[in-house]
Design goal:
- This protein is α/β, with parallel strands linked by helices.
- It has eleven helices and twelve strands.
- The protein folds into two domains: about 55 residues, Orthogonal Bundle (DNA polymerase, domain 1), CATH 1.10.150; about 280 residues, TIM Barrel, CATH 3.20.20.
- The strands form two sheets. Strands 1-2-3-4-7-8-9-10-11-12 form a ten-stranded mixed beta sheet.
- Helix 4 packs across helix 5 and helix 6 runs parallel beside helix 8.
- It is elongated and about 70 Å long.
- The two termini are about 15 Å apart.
- The structure holds iron/sulfur cluster (SF4).
- The site of iron/sulfur cluster has 12 residues, from loops.
């Protein structure tokens, strides 16, 4: 392990803040543009690697800032090519990110898409019963640099560019809203040519004020709701946040987001045996999806044995393969756009709901 830098990370500065800093150093304005583009396109581990920037400026920056906010602690590769990263944060704590290759291949046999699942907090306070991250409780929200560095460091371990980002890792992105949106602004900055907004998805457990804010700000990114139940009673048991914002309140907010942005909404739905996989659930789910253009991702429940669930969480079981296929078929017959979210990385505890430092040795 390398020594932990004591300097602040430069990625915590917005372009405006960086500009003011360059002015205060007496650096010419054109250098800022040059530095900003080269720094974020190369995402170097040392400022010295930015060879087109004058040596004196590189030295000044090296004395004032660290270029990164974290370092790789562990990398685990799944049989299906999914990579789970454990990053140690220089400001304390650890965080996980997962890089998932698509099954579709290009002419060279490489994945057509690479989706990075990014964390927004260390742990989570929302306590969803099916989620391993919940067992960590909330330790803190991530800084701008810590969100961005998951992208830039993961990119260095991928032979093809990361094409999509989903805020679906540890934590609730809406509870770190401003920082998440600042990271989205940088990742979609056209001058950097990293990602287009439509390749970014923010997934929420249903924090209504965050959804409304995204709508009012007309963010051009995708929005997903972790729904997982079609009745308030079950949803409150699975996701305590539903006591604060019930299904109706969240649906109203999602409809508002659609009206403001015209971007279809995604519903995430984990299937639990005997809980949310009945005929009635199919009917209610179908009805919910008809309020605005949307699609449903149905997701197999993954074991979270390593977190020793207790109480209601310990009773959760995956739906049988047959019931899973039947659920999908019936939604399709009801003209619902439905996708099966694969169990990518399940063998390394990197699948949905499994992130909780389980493989730290
Ligand atoms: S599913 Fe998401 S919101 Fe719920 S506890 Fe896990 S990380 Fe938090």
């Amino acid at each position: 392990m390398t020594s932990i830098p004591s300097l602040p990370c430069i990625k915590n500065l917005t372009q405006t803040e960086l500009s003011s800093h360059f002015v205060s150093m007496g650096t010419e304005a054109y250098r800022l543009k040059q530095f900003y583009k080269e720094f974020y396109q190369k995402s170097p581990l040392q400022f010295e690697q930015l060879t087109s920037i004058p040596k004196s400026l590189r030295e000044q920056l090296s004395n004032q800032f660290s270029p990164t906010s974290m370092q790789l602690s562990k990398k685990t590769v799944s049989a299906d090519g999914t990579i789970k990263f454990l990053f140690d944060l220089f400001s304390g704590g650890s965080v996980e990110s997962v890089l998932i290759p698509s099954e579709m291949r290009n002419e060279e046999g490489l994945p057509k898409r690479k989706t990075l699942c990014i964390s927004s907090q260390v742990g989570c306070q929302l306590g969803c019963k099916f989620c391993a991250t919940a067992s960590l409780k909330l330790q803190r929200s991530l800084s701008l640099a810590e969100i961005l560095d998951q992208f830039f460091l993961a990119q260095t371990y991928s032979e093809t560019p990361i094409t999509n980002v989903v805020f679906m890792g540890m934590g609730e992105p809406m509870l770190n809203y401003d920082t998440v949106m600042r990271s989205v602004e940088l990742l979609t900055d056209p001058t950097l040519e990293l990602l287009s907004p439509k390749r970014i998805t923010v997934s929420t457990a249903g924090v209504v004020p965050g959804i409304i804010k995204m709508a009012d700000e007309q963010r051009q990114i995708k929005l997903a709701l972790s729904l997982h139940a079609t009745t308030n009673g079950l949803r409150e048991k699975l996701m305590p946040i539903s006591k604060k914002w019930n299904i109706q309140a969240v649906m109203d907010a999602l409809e508002y987001y659609y009206q403001k942005t015209r971007i279809p909404i995604t519903f995430e739905y984990i299937l639990f045996q005997g809980l949310n996989d009945s005929q009635e659930d199919i009917k209610r789910l179908t009805k919910l999806t008809r309020r605005f253009p949307s699609k449903v991702n149905i997701i197999p429940f993954h074991p979270i044995d390593f977190t020793v669930p207790t109480g209601f969480a310990a009773t959760l079981q995956p739906t049988s393969d047959e019931a899973f296929k039947n659920f999908q078929q019936q939604l399709l017959q009801n003209d619902v756009t439905v996708m099966i979210r694969s169990s990518s990385g399940v063998d390394i505890d990197a699948a949905c709901g499994q992130l909780a430092f389980s493989n730290v040795s």
